[in-house]
Amino acid sequence: MPTSIFKPRVAALLVAMLVWSGSILAAPTPFTAHYRLDISGWPDASITHTLSRQDDVSSSGEVWESDMRASIKVASGEERGQFQLDGDRVQALDYTSAYSLVGIGDDYHLDKNQLQALPDRQTALFELSRKAPDARCANPQVSPCELDYQNHKGKTERLFYRVTDRSDIETPAGTFPGVTVDTWDPEKRDRHLYFTFHREIPGLLLKMRYVKKDEARSHLTLTDLTLDRPSDAARSTAER
Asked: pTM for the full model?
C-alpha cells in the first residue's frame, strides 16, 4: 500500500531480493494471515495478507499472487503482485495498488515490461522471506547486503539488510520458527525496520518492528493464520 496511508512507511514491509546462498529454497504454501498494526499517533490498523496460486496456462512455471490489504477508521489500502515461480527463479509479472484517505485516493500499476529488471514490493516480500533463512548477511563482521526493488510508482528503492536472528517466535496465532531481518535506508541510518518471517513458509510475515532513533514507533503482530493445504511445516508447528 502507498506510503501516504500510514506512517511510518508501512509500505516498506514489501522489500526486495536477498543473495541466495545456494541451498534448496522452500516451496510456497497458500495462506491467509491477519495482523494488528500498532502505530504511534494513529488508530490501530488491521491487515490481511493472502498468498494464493493462480491458474495461468500461458506461463511455463507456477503463477502466484500476493495480496495485502490494510484498513483503519479513516483510510484503506490494497496492494497485489503476481509473479511466476520456475524452480528457484522468481519473476514479477504484474502489480497493482490503490489507497483511499478520507475519501481521496489513487491507483498505481506496473506491468510485466516494467518489472523485468526489479521486482515490485509484493514479489520482493516473497523473495526476501524465501531466501532469508540461508542469507549470507548474518555475521556482524561482514558488510550488510544491499537490496533494490520498485515502489508503487516504479521508483527504485535501496535498503541495506542483515539477518539478526533465527529463533522461534511466539504470536497470538501460535509459535513458529522465525528468521528476523534488520533493514535500513543507507541515507537514514537512525531508522530500522525489523521483519520476522516464517523460516519454512515463504512470504509469511510473523511480526514487524519499526525503530527510529532507538525508539519503537510501530509494530505488526500476526493474530490469525489459515494454511490452505497441509504441509510438513504446518504440521510441525501445530505439534509445538
From this structure: 0.79
Provide the grid cell at 185: 535506508
230 Cβ contact partners less than 8 Å away, ≥ 6 residues apart = none
SS3 for 74?
A: coil
- At 94, list the grid cell: 504484474
Alpha-carbon distances, residue 189 vs 13, 30, 177, 193 (angstroms):
17, 35, 29, 11
47, 1 Cβ separation under 8 angstroms: no
Pick out the chain residues at pLDDT < 70: 1-26, 56-60, 73-74, 102-103, 229-240
32: CB partners within 8 A, 6+ apart? 48, 49, 50, 225, 226, 228
Instruction: Judge contact between 125 and 13, C-beta under 8 A.
Output: yes
Amino acid at 199: R
User: 3-state class of 234 per DSSP?
Assistant: helix
- Triad 64, 183, 205: Cα angle to 5°: 40
d(CA 21, CA 135): 6
